[in-house]
Predict the 3D structure of the following.
Amino acid sequence: MAAFLFKTEPSEYSFADLQRAVKGRWDGVSNATAHIHLRAVKPGDLIYIYHTGQERAIVGTARALSDAYADPAHDTGARTAKGEIKFPVIDLKALAACKKPLTLTGMKADPRFADFALLRLSRLSVMPVPAALAAVIDGLTR
DNA sequence: GCCAACGTTGGC
DNA sequence: GCCAACGTTGGC
């Protein structure tokens, strides 16, 4: 099982919205690098939800329910030059809110996060979380 | 195919 | 509100 981090602007779509949705679709990702990571998601993978804007913290966890598939809101037949789905989305469900949200400030202060894409590539909205780092996050948010 | 201009994201 | 980072667009 792999782990990923998804960013969202809570005024647009928050973790609470995902909890209410029961089954949510993660769409609206437009960045090519983020698409690469989104296509790598497998059912059962763990997803950390991070709020941008005022909060800037990992606030909850979710479970992937599907492989990446073509967004029905776009041309579902569209493919990239490499033959991959051009507008990938996944389905997911909320698991639990973090007892202690893990703030961006907290991650920046912890050398274990020094190489994390969240800190290195501030505009990336979907990224893998290495297993060792997932264990650290679990410990800090419990 | 290169690169300057421009737009967007997201932290500060 | 500003700005850095970086992706995209369009002229050449």
About this structure: The radius of gyration of chain A is 15 Å. The first helix of chain A runs from residue 15 to 21. Chain A has a mean pLDDT of 94. Strands of chain A lie at 3-8, 24-26, 46-51, 57-64, 69-70, 88-103, 126-129.
